[in-house]
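Q: Got a minute? One more chain.
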Amino acid sequence: MGVECVKWRQVDDILPRPRLDQLLDRAAASPVVIARAPRGSGKRTAVRGWLSRRDPSAGKWSWIECRGNTDSLDELLALTYAKAENPESHLVVLVGFSRRYDEELLQAVQRTALQHPGRRIVIVTRDYLEVERHRTLLSVGVSVIPPHEFRFT
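A: Always. Here it is, folded:
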């Protein structure tokens, strides 16, 4: 699996979406949040805007994109949490993880949520992943923001 950590700078030109911000605020009470919608629906922008408005300095969250390098998700999560100001309450956003990473993603999410209950993970995806499919069977809470919530209304 190829993943990398991306440090976002604050952005002021993102259209605020208060309804989505409220949904994300409520969902973030769970250890795992899944934001799932089709390509081009504004998932990344909505989550990025929500985080930028909640923590403009990006000190309480990190953004990890699935890309073509060689780091494993476990290694990258460990490194990300080690660099965090407060690792036990740090929120990590995982972006671009598809079904082909289901097993590694499911294991990493469960392990992180069980071993470190204060940590939060937001998964931004267009795929219906195993984490979502089996959320009622998992020993950790999973909140889902489904595709219809990303529509502009």
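A: Helices lie at 18-27, 43-54, 73-83, 102-115, 130-133.
Q: Perfect, thanks.
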